[in-house]
């Protein structure tokens, strides 16, 4: 009986466990302890960088808001799906506007947190703290830059803020630029921030002074302060950034820390840490199979000059090409030895079959892609080119051919299989893994994504020089890029002779268009140059097959599209925000 | 040998264990057999008795050594008995007794396990003698407290705890009246009997019923809170896999809704008295006094269920009782009686309904083409391809050039039939052993449930065990346990994805031919059109939950009326999951080519995950009950604490050495390791005082004080009081005139507070969660604020007032109960939407809102009998409504003049409300629908002067005719705009498109300010339940109906009821059969359907018709026949010959009929289903020995 009483007593006593109600989370850190150790300071800053990765999609989470994916709105790229922005049905409630807004402000919140709390709480060395604050300021500047690029004038918050404090009205576009410049200037003036990190440096991937100069120069372009821009670009060069010799190899993992890279989103082969190019730009017969959501536009392909710098012309390759209707042109892209039913189907689609050469059709079209700016082949898979993919969803490497119409994959000499079999589109080669060893999983590719690279700086620099009337200096910058690419230099022959500022302006723009496909640059360039309507909504444009036939048409909704709307959700939650003109909530 | 055996088995434990699990089914069967044997031998028991001049006492003792009989006799009988001499070997008890009492004036009478001995009636005496007896209920269980009245003297006595009584009475002329509340009174003429066994028959009314309430039981007559009871008979013999789903329609104010039909996940959501808060609405479930999970309980183990609906009855569970409390009492062992009962059933399963798609591929292709051509785009499928299918259809069994039948090479697959066409059987077996001795009682049960599901490879099975044991170890101490556990295996198949593949495929994919899966056969078809069968078969692994729940209790009788009970509870749930692919290839049967190669081992990923949770609960209660004259009072004082902890771990590796070797060690590249842990604690003290005067005036006070770890130290404690009072008006003298008609009439009133701590476990703390980043290719876990905190977080409190009246009339034939209630919840814990400007961190949980709810509940029952025909019918009705009283302020919208002098429309809807197409806003029901409205015009188009009539557009908002189009163009020309497509051409707004009303009058039709509150919600306002039971001789019949109305669904799902078509996606029959189509080039095209209900087809996207509008808004009311049973019980005299005490066979149906206007699937589940609910046709048996 005593035993039983003892048990009862124990039962009653153990009920007095003191800390039963004082629980705390197991995998997160409370705000009171955050930033209070050197390690937490490191991790907090890494958390700010992580904002660059927000909304990075993978196969379970398609999320079309990444920078490179914006190329689907550009002149040089296109998407697999109809885009409301391009088909003229977009409204201010579109998730595109809300998601980018939210991601950028999240980055700002995190940067503000670091900028405020590192000085107050962190026990790290003064040097490190100074460097980290400068990095946070760069990142904050970058996020405000991304906002101001499209929304043009957004509320500025420089301290962490709560939901109830999110009631500020918009600042003007000019005020936001001033804020961005102020933050970047602080970075540049911070002695603890290195000019740049050497390849393999443990801190590689952190912000550098060169990055701050490059971004500040870009802001000056937006502000058309050409001289200031050029001065900053000079500083990037002074920091030791150069072009990498091999354009194609630049976009491979081995060269992701080459001296051309100024600032890039860091990727590695692990879930949550990598890029998703293979998934969204790859196609089913590429290794680990992709979905070809994002593809180059035929305009881009046509823009690549011949190797001698002369403009590419279809008629020069195939006389009479442009006189045919777009549907008739399909005939040139057909594979040799079509079966009768393939021929009948092509004829039914409108291909002008009397021009079909059963034995020489492939040879004829291949000529159009030969002797072009080498960047064409580096960036794009063109008809009858080959690609090292994987056979039939396995990990058996196979050389595949871009042929039309698609018949079948094969271990040897098979066709490239797309997710859009009834249409014939160009594919990106840039950033798509070749063979079966560059990648572990399509959801986490290892290659860093460049946000700022030296070729961008050189061409922005050329732009800044040209706008100041410094044509020969500008040509010099452009030629650095062209020389690396392997295309004839400007002023090297008749075709490449620069005829004046206007001509050079267009040449620089085209140089940017052909240099940066799939890097999230062209759409914003066209907006900045106010050429987006003229380029993207040129008469008859749309989502195009290789020969120019529209799969669906684009439709221009109005000039208000140049400025993104304040997301209608935000206007409803903060009536102090005023909508941009032309947008209907 | 023995030793050797032990060693061997130790050496192979893992194998043995696996083996044992595999053989579980067999084991269950063996247990049945073993028990049958045990039982049979106990009946066949023979008695050997040798005695010389023995007393009755000695004889009794000897018999009891050999057989389990109780003897009941009067001591005087024993004294009068002659010494007994007997010598019997291996004889039946009757023969032995005959021999013993051969020449004695003694009769015996065997009833069950009791042997009554009484004097042979011979001499008529005038004396009062001692009468001994026992009173039992209809199940032979002793009844305590039964009143025995001597009719001549008027003296009364009551039976003791074992149901025994003794009194002095004239055994020859005496008449006794036996009365017990809830039982039919009996008058017995003694006619010289010394001993009596009286079986009481229950009155048809249920006043005597003991109702389980929080921390105790109450007689129904004394219940003054609002408590609904459900007895075991309504949930036994059901083929529903979970207890929760079997409760539908059984109690007023208890709304039960299934959420999916997926085996293993098909527990229902229970809503007690509707919704009164913005967060979790699941009621607290208490199993034998311990908080738990309802679906862990085997429905066959349930003795009774009480639902505590009002605050006064739930307040004893204070902090957690806001959504009502469901008390489940399991069956306990019974003294002196061993019974073995088996119930088993098997059911044929059919899906309740399955979405229907176009299965003729040529039609499918033409419809898809129509959608693209409607947008001015090229057709997807060529005529050549369509021709191929048409030709093949004429000769389905003909062979292609590759020797494959046409019906395989050019398929027209009905995927709904492929996935749900198989007829499968569900099995449910339960075995219970129930018995005990004077001091120890036990219940042992084992159940096996196997639900194969209606979709291939989605089965779930379940083995459940229970031991309820209690032992009186000392006069003042009882100890015992309720221990139960289960092992549940569910399919690893990703059912939601497999189900979604119904819409993500086309009829042009053949499921499987000669063991090879089909690939889209048409050249134009999307290569990603799925083969759901291949998907289902491609997922290997296992998913198993092991749960063990154990409560150990000790009950101490301290002094009279004062008891102390302590319980220690531990439960543990352990979920193991392994998934790995099973490689397969897909074949294009039209071209006879391999289209998708099988995955190589190097591409395969294997993943293991473990998820473990446990609960430790300590519960100490001191109880006191006493009666002083007309004053009854009771009190309890208790302490309870709970600690819950859960952690999980998973790891995945890519690249296996062989497809069959799927352990982590066979993988090569680590692709992910994750793990986390979470916990919470709860500590409470509580007390209750109840008092009754003369069984007429009843009162009760409850106080509970709770602390939760989910709140910061400063705000963690909450006090929850409740008061209630009842008046049994029927006991008043002034009611005596109608007492013959009204058996019982009670008025009940209560007021009380309950709480809710339904926030996240650490929501009071702002936290930084880990996020991935890397520098120089080295991974780091960055930290970023992922949840905003709120250190002011505290208890959400619901104050409920309840007023009820209950009564029983017509001698118990009719009973009714009406309750009115009003609840007000304030400080509602809620995570409001916050501006995206604040970033991606989860918003802080806040005590932000106030909600009121009110309702009426009515239950009515009638029971009667006519000769052998017995019947009862009971119905219940509940009405419930809620209103958000306070949230973030009033909605203000209207035109203002801005700084530039422009008239602009402004609304603060985003600031003051939460949600999108359902919203939370002050003055409206919770999550009231907020939708665009379809334009509705007169159809006159133009005014007399030829100008456009803004109210003259199409009647139903669809542009159908050239006049409609002309009107639309004139409207646009006049400056009106039509959102969202905002333009007139085939890619924007065209024939067969919907336009939206301009509700705010700003000239823009269908912009965000044109949404409006619809005064409708998705939860039912009215619930009905109806049960009918009938019995005639051995036959019984029962059915349960339930109905819900006053709710609506917004159902607008791509490829199910939208007019969107795409490659690789199915076309729903609803839309295919009834959509707008007009061939402009051929007005006589037979396919023209300008009266079609659904908008014109469009390829891939449709901004214009996709608006969240009332076009897709449906009344979701339904009536369901939940259960129907027809049973037959074999007559007992026949059954007894086989030593069977009860044998019943029955036919039953579950979910047999649904009446609804909702065009989607089962309206009970809601608009979006990922697995249809089941309909079952069962055959079952109940067998008791």
TrEMBL record, chain A:
Which cellular components does GO assign to this protein?
A: cell outer membrane
Asked if the Swiss-Prot or TrEMBL record annotates the protein with the keyword Signal, the reply is yes
Task: Point out the signal peptide segment.
Answer: none
Give compartment(s): Cell outer membrane
The family database entries (Pfam families) matched by this protein are listed as: SusD-like_3, SusD_RagB
Write the record's keywords in alphabetical order, separated by commas: Cell outer membrane, Membrane, Signal
What's the domain of life for this entry?
Answer: Bacteria
The answer to whether the entry has keyword Membrane is yes
By sequence similarity, the record places it as follows:
Belongs to the SusD family.
Protein name per the record: RagB/SusD domain-containing protein
The organism is Sphingobacterium sp. (strain 21)
Q: What is the lineage of its organism?
A: Bacteria, Pseudomonadati, Bacteroidota, Sphingobacteriia, Sphingobacteriales
